[in-house]
């Protein structure tokens, strides 16, 4: 019951939720909504690249607390390299699965 408010917003967290997104209880509390993750990744990429640069996105981002991958997945859309790290191997496995969707 306590996760119902997150379940009702599941498509805010991952637009492709119904395609097999994996998330645990901690993930519900910590994942960044997709629109915010997208905006953050775009802004970070723009900080390190000149507008119109053909090499747009040629940076490496380290997501040191990736959880189930919300931010790391969006960074991968804007940056050449993303390193996703988490202390929990199960959550890291979920992030990998979610990134492959």
Which descriptors would you attach to this protein?
about 100 residues, mainly alpha, two-stranded parallel ribbon, 2 strands, globular
How would you describe the overall organization of this protein?
The structure is a single chain. The chain has six helices and two strands, in the order ααααβαβα. The chain is mostly helical and 101 residues long. Strands 1-2 form a two-stranded parallel ribbon.
Share of β-strand residues: 5-15%
- The helix/strand series, from N terminus to C terminus, equals HHHHEHEH
What is the number of strand segments? 2
- The total count of helices amounts to 6
Distance between the termini: 28 Å
In a nutshell, what does this entry contain?
This protein has 101 residues and is mainly alpha-helical. The protein has helices at 4-7, 10-13, 25-30, 34-47, 70-78, 89-100; strands at 60-63, 81-84. α4 crosses α5 (70-78).
How is this fold's topology laid out?
Blueprint: H1 4-7, H2 10-13, H3 25-30, H4 34-47, E1 60-63, H5 70-78, E2 81-84, H6 89-100
Parallel strand pairs: 1-2
Helix pairs in contact: 4-5
């Amino acid at each position: 019951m306590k996760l119902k408010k997150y379940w009702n917003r599941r498509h805010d967290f991952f637009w492709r939720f119904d395609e097999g997104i994996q998330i645990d209880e901690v993930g519900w509390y910590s994942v960044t909504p997709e629109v915010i993750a997208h905006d953050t990744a775009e802004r970070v990429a723009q900080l390190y690249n000149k507008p119109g640069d053909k090499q747009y996105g040629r940076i490496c981002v380290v997501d040191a607390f990736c959880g189930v991958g919300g931010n790391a997945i969006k960074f991968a859309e804007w940056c050449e390299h993303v390193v996703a790290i988490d202390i929990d191997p199960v959550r890291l496995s979920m992030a990998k699965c979610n990134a492959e969707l």
